[in-house]
Amino acid sequence: MVAVFSVLLLVAAAAVSLLIRFLRPRFAHHWLLSAAICLAAWILALLARSQIPDNLTLSNWQPRVLLPTAPALVLDHFSASYLLAVITLSVATILTEVKRPRAGERPGGRWFDLFCIIALTGVAGVAVLASNLAAAALLWTFLDLVLLAFEIPRVRNKEESESLVIALSLRLLATMLLIWAGLISAAHGYSTALTGLHPSIAPILLAAAGLRLGLLPPHRPLPEIQELPTGLRASLRLTPAASALVILARAAQSGAAQSSGWLLFLTALAALYAAISWLQRVAIRDGLPFWLTGASALALASAARGQANASLSWGVAALLSGGLLILASSRPRWIIPLLLIGALWTTTLPFTPTWPGAALYSLPFPPIGLLFLITQGMLMIGYLRHALRRSTAAASAERWVWLIYPLGLALLPIIQAMIAWWSRPGASGGMPAWPGWVESSISIFGNGLTLLIISFYFHRARGSPRLMERSATALEFNGLYRLLWSAYHRLRQWVRFVGWALEGRAGILWALLILALLYSLLIQLGLTG
Question: Cβ neighbours of residue 129 under 8 Å, at least 6 residues apart?
Answer without folding.
Answer: 3, 4, 7, 73, 74, 75, 79, 83
